[in-house]
Amino acid sequence: QQALDALVARHAILRSRFAEDGGNPVQIIDAPRPVPLTRIDLTGLEPDEHDRRLAALAEEEADRPFDLT
Hints:
2 helices, 38% helix, alpha+beta
């Protein structure tokens, strides 16, 4: 968590987004803030179940909608 937060704080491009102002794109660089991470413990699962659960979690994340702007 600390390493990811430091990386984002160090590199403005990772905090950049684009908005529209009067029909023109403008770059906005947000202030550094912690990057939320979700931790899921799969260590207690059998190897096959671990792989199935990991694949399901990856698929759920890939299917999650996001706002590209």
